[in-house]
Amino acid sequence: MKIEEDLGFINILKRATKLLCDASVLENLIPLLIQTFLLYLFPYGLIDLFTTTTIVSASWTVHTSEEEPLRFGQLVRRTVEICQNRLEGCLITSLYVLLLSTPVFFGFLFVATNYFHIISLTGSGENSYYYSINIEEDAEGYYRSSSVNSPVKMLFDAVLAMFHGAIFLGLLAMFSKWSAGWNMGLVVSVLEEEENGQSIYGTDALTLSSNYGKGHEKRGLQVMLVFLVFAIAMRMPCFCFKCTESSNGNRVLYTSFYVGLICVGNMIKWVACVVFYEDCRTSVLEKKGDVEIGSKGKTFVA
């Protein structure tokens, strides 16, 4: 019916106007996004860079050490030497990784925003999808009633969720696959150098890591998915129970516990990345022998 279509269009138009004119949403959302971006860019990024360089260099020193057993003082000294020589190159590589990963994060944000925007316009979860107006005559006059087409509503919800869910999962798989190469590029920046002693960083490190990772994409994807699920699992309890907003004295204890778990998971992730790098590099050098990939860089031995 024409009147049904007009009513649906007016309803959507009202919701769009209300959403666009809601200044409180913009006032709260924009500062939060800016604060989160600055937090992840400067303090968190620098701390993560330092810990990444330290973990990778320490794990590689233990792996390649010919001394049995390796003393703690020697481990610290060699780790510091590697970090001093490789921190700048690792920083440049991490900036390239940030530049490459930003479009993927914007893709996640766009998918989520588009999904909730459509829900807000169509009124998902409310009785506002399809209204049919029936004008009937009784003994007292005319009255107007509305009804909801529930099967159509459920079908629309399912199709909408499946469509955005498929896009989200596709982006997640692509991000996990690419992050394996990006993380290996950071490992290359820490552990490898050119024949003239200069460190390998930036696009050179990412290109070399791409060459190492050929044929190992599936395993890299699996490794990154495992640690992605682990990272989400470690953060979800704190979000669900709001441990940082607790009013009792256990707030610091809960926060310290979850931060400790996240740090342990981060350490295990980078140790796994070092092992993955060593396996890929060894496989490439065994297949091709002493060719251009093997001659481009030699492993830095402390």
TrEMBL record:
Residues annotated as transmembrane: 20-42, 95-116, 154-175, 221-241, 253-277
Superkingdom, taxonomy of origin: Eukaryota
Keywords associated with the record: Membrane, Transmembrane, Transmembrane helix
UniProt KW Membrane keyword: yes
RNA-binding recorded as keyword: no
Protein name: (thale cress) hypothetical protein
